[in-house]
Amino acid sequence: MRVLVLCAEVGAGHVTVARTLAERLRRRSEVTEVGLRTDLDVLGEHLGRFLTSSFELHLDRIGWTYELAYRVFYERELPRRLGQLALAALGSRGLRRTVAAFGADVVAAEYPVLSAALGELRARGRLSVPVCSSISDPAGLHYWAHPGIDLHLLSWPEAVAEVDRIAGPGRAAAIRPLVDDRFLAPPSRAEARAALGLPADRRVIAISGGGWGLGDLAGAARTALDTAADAIAVCLSGHSDAMRGDLERSYSGDARVRVLGFTDRMPEVLSAADVLVHTTGGTTALEARVAGCPLINFGTGVAHVRNHARALARLGLAEWAPNRAALGPAIERALAGGRPEPLDTGALPDAAELIVALAGSGRRG
């Protein structure tokens, strides 16, 4: 059995989830080969490069243009449908060529643009192999979910109802979240703090801007220290050298602030922290839930980030502090409330097992 996993390197979260899925698939005896593509060139070289550069430009550098596109092509039904059709039409040749060249028995996509295009091709009978959509967001799932997708794999169990509304009932399954296995058996607080060189007797507030280092991280750190003067703020600037430089200049000589770039030590960070302040939602929010770390979404955010913050607040899974004035009280509540229980993943099925079963059936789930 050959499984092709597709994602996009837009931010770091999608690639992290896709690599986790690929690794779990490789452990299955039925799977002879797993292919992993982390680029949108599978849609065609020109379209892929255009979309990748557009996401970075409009989301990371401009902002308001991404917000406008989201309001038009996500929130309005007719433009959204036209967008799905356009993705399928423009990406059809590239996707079908990629699937055929690998000889895939099943395809798993971890990015909404890819899921929308594949779902449309599958619905129109232009793709013969089953398709799964791995969904690592808790809400705002148009494009992620599609009636043509055979099976939607949900790392947030709360997302089942939304997928049922979009794709029809019976096409969604809550799975063991696609996070690094270290989050499923995290180190103790004492072990994590020792590994990171953090004091055992101080409160620790982690502040993350996601893979791109977005948001007002310096302001969040200042608010955190004003709220809890004895705390240590661990600021995660992702791949953004500019953000890291700004933080290091802003807090030069302040021993209460530790600045990290992109790190593979998030299991230790989330085990060590008393609370996580996060600006972009996505995979880091999922990791916090699995690890049992209190989460505060900070900032108004744009488009899907704002939707995630609202959804998690509505579900009681996180607080949403749209500005610094709201962040201080939210931190106080989180520190007073202690850590929640980690998500119980024991009864949830493994995504790789479901993908293998779907490929073996040769038909829609």
SSE layout:
Elements: E1 2-7, H1 13-26, E2 33-37, H2 45-62, H3 64-73, H4 77-102, E3 106-110, H5 112-123, E4 131-135, E5 151-154, H6 160-167, E6 172-174, H7 189-196, E7 204-208, H8 217-227, E8 232-236, H9 241-250, E9 257-260, H10 266-272, E10 275-278, H11 282-291, E11 295-298, H12 303-314, E12 319-321, H13 324-337, H14 351-361
Helix pairs in contact: 1-14, 2-3, 4-5, 7-10, 8-13
What multimeric state do the chains show?
A: single chain
Count, helices: 14
Query: What value does the Rg take, in angstroms?
Result: 20 Å
Strand order of the largest sheet: 2-1-3-4-5-6
Regions with little confidence, pLDDT below 50 for 5+ residues:
none
The description of the largest β-sheet is: 6 strands, parallel
Describe, in plain words, how this protein is organized in 3D.
The chain is α/β, with parallel strands linked by helices. The protein has two domains: 2-176 and 346-361, Rossmann fold (3-Layer(aba) Sandwich); 182-337, Glycogen Phosphorylase B (Rossmann fold, 3-Layer(aba) Sandwich). It is built from 14 helices and twelve strands. The protein has a six-stranded parallel sheet with strand order 2-1-3-4-5-6, sandwiched between helices. The longest helix has 26 residues, at 77-102. The mean pLDDT is 89.
How would you summarize this macromolecular structure in one to three sentences?
With 365 residues, this protein is α/β, with parallel strands linked by helices.
Keyword list:
14 helices; six-stranded parallel β-sheet; Rossmann fold; alpha/beta
